[in-house]
TrEMBL record, chain B:
Keywords: Cell membrane, Membrane, Transmembrane, Transmembrane helix, Transport. CDD domains: TM_PBP2. This is Putative polyamine ABC transporter permease protein. Belongs to the binding-protein-dependent transport system permease family. CysTW subfamily. GO terms for biological process: transmembrane transport. Residues 85-292 form the ABC transmembrane type-1 domain. The chain crosses the membrane at residues 28-50, 88-107, 119-139, 169-190, 274-293.
Length: 394, 302
């Protein structure tokens, strides 16, 4: 292979910018992905995650910046020169070739004499050896997806890129493939970069998640850490749900900041606040919040101690999910907060829309992010359902 | 027939017995006008032509025939006009080849590179159809004339054997290539345009350089279009007589079409020969196409 560049090591993206005309798809991105890790790029559509992936693959060239694997600079090289393979969102299997020939395509181009045997082994890995003689059109979506994975994996690339590979599958198959991909990644030990807009997918599969927005990385870290402590309002809402409220830091009490949110005084651990003075967005996750009939009287009877901070609210909607019940409550500012109560008791808590309640949480779970430029979505979820309920109440 | 069965089943299955009954004859009723058209304007004339091709001349009465099974017509037509058959297939083959060479890059550019110019390019390809086929072919006489720019340039460079383009096979092939080019471009464009560009990117991603990707991915994927285009060019080109008539010479470039035309309209008593030639040409093309499609075809066509 003329021009093929061997390279091993971490993938490094250094100050990469990609502009399409006036539009900046990726804005001065710097990122390092350790060799052998499962890395997820998470973000809404148009955030630049797929462009980033395509630049790593060589299908787009950065306007500025460098892309390296180990110490080998790959910027400017062609896709076929890079030790990188892609699993495309549409799978992009060659329709005129059999499954086996599809998978053997890469090894053949690299001049491997035993390309067919390699292809069969790769098909073994994705558990499809029995379909080797079929054409892609004769396979189901899930099977095509596995063939696409096998076709990329068979080359043992230094970095495997997955561009929303599960997007076209139904929910059950998606869950199954998530587990499968994770198994394969552990088995082959390659660097996987997985692009997705599904935060649950990113969290279940990846060692490290980077949340992208407007061509920049908002926050990066292990999934659990990112969920527990979002650093920006965008991350707080994109990774799981958050109840957010505008507030202002009024003072300090030991390890806690004291803030005023909708007229209630709340505490935030100093280590969990992205800002240390002035306007903030106060946040707490729905499952960390509990409902009480009266102040400091937690309905969740399994807890013996009062939780700490509380706020007055009105129940807007109650929906039974099974393992939990989701309450939508309206807080003093008019914003709708969401509360998950696990269904631990035999007797359900009898709350109806319109009932006044207190919502309570342990201040240790609270967090704060910068208020500047942040938007709070109208309702965390079930937006239209809330308005429906309101209509029926009034 | 399988399509028919499918329509019948699709309509009949979920509905009651009444609609099921109607569903069974409905497709046939819808097919009736088309079938009638084909019988009246295709099958009957074909049979008629075949009987003409076997007629014998009435001795002593030129221009009169009687019904016969005179297979000698075929033999004499084939031996006498073998060079014309050869030229027809050769010219049509060359025109198909050149049309392919011109059409593929054009279709490729339209499908992947043209962007907002795509519509304009499409119009440029189709627009010539709005003027007469004959007029456009006559125009080529000017283009290729001895005093025209093409012949002058080639003569200046001393690369034109004989000094002429018109009245040679080159002019005929050029005319054929030009006239049937759109029939090559459009099917190839359609098959390329339908292809997912990601599939071509996947070729590059899997270590194939530009040329290898084209050879192993793009071209095979567009084969249905190439196949349709070559057939749509070759078949009418092999039977064409206008280009040879208007651009060729009286002797060395005549094709089967010209012979059939003159046998039908100019040579007294030429009807059986013309009919035999027509039938032979048809059989020859059918056989060639069958072999060709068998070799290069995809499931979509056979």
């Amino acid at each position: 292979m003329a021009g093929f560049r061997e390279a091993t090591g971490d993938l490094r993206i250094e100050n990469v910018t990609k502009e399409f005309g006036d539009f900046t798809a990726v804005d001065d991105l710097t990122l390092s992905v350790p060799r052998g890790s499962f890395f997820a790029l998470l973000g809404p559509s148009g955030c630049g995650k797929t462009t980033t992936l395509r630049m790593v693959a060589g299908l787009e060239q950065p306007t500025r910046g460098r892309i390296l694997i180990g110490d080998t600079d790959l910027t400017g090289s062609r896709p076929y020169e890079r030790p990188v393979n892609t699993v495309f969102q549409s799978y992009a299997l060659f329709p005129h070739l059999t499954v086996r020939d599809n998978v053997a395509f890469g090894p053949k181009r690299r001049g491997h004499k035993d390309a067919t045997r390699m292809a069969d082994e790769a098909l073994e890995l994705v558990q499809l050896p029995h379909l080797a003689a079929r054409k892609p059109a004769q396979l189901s979506g899930g099977q095509q997806q596995r063939v696409a994975v096998a076709r990329a994996l068979v080359n043992r690339p230094e970095v495997l890129l997955l561009d929303e590979p599960l997007g076209a599958l139904d929910l059950k198959l998606r869950r199954q493939m998530q587990v499968e991909l994770k198994r394969i990644q552990t088995e082959v030990g390659l660097t996987f970069i997985h692009v997705t807009h599904d935060q649950e997918e990113a969290m279940t599969m990846a060692d490290t998640v980077a949340v992208m927005n407007h061509g920049r990385i908002e926050q990066m870290g292990p999934p659990a850490q990112m969920y527990d402590l979002p650093k920006t309002a965008f991350v707080a809402n994109f990774v799981g749900q958050s109840n957010l409220g505008h507030g202002r830091i009024t003072g300090r009490d030991g390890d806690f900041f004291v803030a005023d949110v909708h007229g209630s005084t709340v505490k935030i651990p100093a280590a969990r606040s992205a800002v240390d003075s002035g306007d903030i967005l106060f946040g707490v996750r729905p499952e960390k919040v509990h409902l009480a009939r009266d102040s400091h009287d937690v309905i969740d009877r399994t807890r013996k101690v009062a939780l700490g901070d509380d706020m007055k609210a009105t129940v807007v909607d109650v929906s039974f999910i099974g393992v939990a019940t989701q309450y939508l409550v309206q807080v003093a500012s008019g914003a709708t907060w969401s509360v998950y109560e696990q269904n631990l008791d035999v007797d359900p808590i009898d709350l109806k829309p319109g009932d006044p309640v207190w919502i309570e949480w342990d201040p240790a779970h609270a967090f704060a992010v910068a208020a500047e430029g942040a938007e709070i979505p109208a309702g965390p979820v079930l937006g239209d359902r809330v308005s429906m309920t309101r209509d029926t109440v009034s | 027939m399988s399509a028919l069965a499918h329509i019948g089943a699709g309509q009949g299955a979920p509905a009651g017995p009444d609609t099921a009954k109607r569903g069974s004859w409905m497709p046939y009723l819808l097919l009736l006008p088309g079938m009638l058209w084909l019988i009246v304007f295709f099958v009957v004339p074909l049979v008629q032509l075949f009987t003409v091709s076997l007629q014998s001349k009435f001795p002593g009465y030129p221009g009169y025939y009687y019904r016969d099974l005179n297979f000698k017509n075929y033999w004499s037509a084939l031996t006498e006009f073998a060079p014309h058959f050869g030229r027809s297939l050769l010219f049509a083959g060359l025109a198909t080849f050149f049309a392919f060479c011109l059409a593929y890059p054009l279709a490729y550019a339209m499908a992947f590179k043209a962007g907002r110019w795509r519509g304009l390019m499409m119009i440029c390809i189709i627009a010539p159809f709005f003027t007469s086929f004959i007029l456009r072919t006559i125009a080529w006489r000017q283009i290729l004339a001895d005093e025209g720019p093409v012949a002058k340039t080639l003569n200046f460079l001393h690369v034109l054997p004989g000094g002429h383009i018109t009245e040679t096979w080159m002019a005929v092939v050029a005319g054929l290539t030009y006239n049937f080019l759109p029939f090559m471009v459009l099917p190839i464009y359609a098959s390329l345009e339908r292809a997912d560009p990601r599939i071509i990117e996947a070729g590059g991603d899997l270590y194939a350089n530009g040329f290898t990707t084209f050879r192993t991915v793009t071209l095979p994927m567009s084969m249905p279009g190439v196949l349709a285009g070559t057939l749509l060019t070759f078949i009418p080109a092999a039977g064409d007589y206008v280009n040879a008539e208007l651009l060729g010479s009286d002797r060395s470039t005549k094709m089967v079409g010209n012979v059939i035309e003159s046998q039908f309209f100019k040579v007294p008593g030429g009807y059986p020969t013309a009919a035999a030639l027509s039938f032979t040409l048809m059989a020859l093309i059918l056989a060639l196409v069958f072999v060709y499609v068998r070799k290069f075809g995809t499931e979509e066509l056979l």
